[in-house]
Design goal:
This protein is an alpha+beta fold and about 180 residues long. The protein has a single domain, classed as Glutaredoxin, CATH 3.40.30. The chain is built from seven helices and five strands, in the order E-E-H-E-H-H-H-H-H-E-E-H. Strands 1-3-2-4-5 form a five-stranded mixed β-sheet, with helices on both faces. The protein is globular, with a radius of gyration of 16 Å. It starts with 14 loop residues before the first strand and ends with a helix.
Length: about 180
């Protein structure tokens, strides 16, 4: 498959950190059980800290269910937390590996975030967010994503190294062109 453009484009239905006017939009397709997505988290956090005006970060789910048995439920849990205004907190807790991704760990994370547990559990167990996650997966597949983490920078597939220094250099190049 020819990987060229992000589909669908970033919109208000996405999970976004950073200003709309940022010169760089970095989209990551990730899996909470993927060790490479987990390892990339500190770099993303550092980029957001050091480029608060230049960088807009978008996270999309791409659970690799054939390899990671807890990935889809983790994504559903993050979405359920998001419905209560705590998407990024649950996202960070899982990527920092503060909780296991089994049901007990997920419930512990929800409790720690002071979520309405009855609502949270009902939404996760009834798979309320499965269609939204499937849309992320379908869009990723249409864009050529097959592994995690996968990145798009300003709508174009990024096939470079995914380390902090290379992302800093990329942000600098984009800033110079603008």
């Amino acid at each position: 498959m020819n990987i060229e453009e992000l589909f669908p484009s970033v919109s208000q239905v996405d999970h976004i950190i950073g200003p709309d006017r940022a010169k760089v939009t970095l989209v990551q397709y990730g899996d909470y059980e993927c060790p490479y997505t987990v390892a990339s988290h500190w770099q993303i956090e550092l980029l957001l800290k050091n480029f608060p005006e230049e960088l807009r970060f978008v996270f999309r789910h791409f659970p690799l269910v054939k390899r990671h048995k807890f990935a889809f439920r983790a994504a559903e849990s993050v979405e359920a937390a998001g419905a209560q205004g705590r998407f990024w907190e649950m996202h960070r807790a899982f990527l920092r590996q503060e909780y296991t991704l089994g049901w007990e760990g997920i419930r512990d994370a929800a409790k720690a975030l002071n979520l309405d547990l009855t609502r949270f559990e009902a939404e996760v167990l009834n798979h309320l967010y499965r269609p939204a996650i499937q849309e992320h997966i379908n869009g990723g597949m249409r864009s050529g994503v097959s592994s995690t983490p996968s990145y798009f920078v300003n709508g174009a597939f990024y096939d470079g190294p995914d380390n902090y220094d290379d992302f800093v250099a990329l942000i600098g190049k984009i800033r110079e062109r603008s």
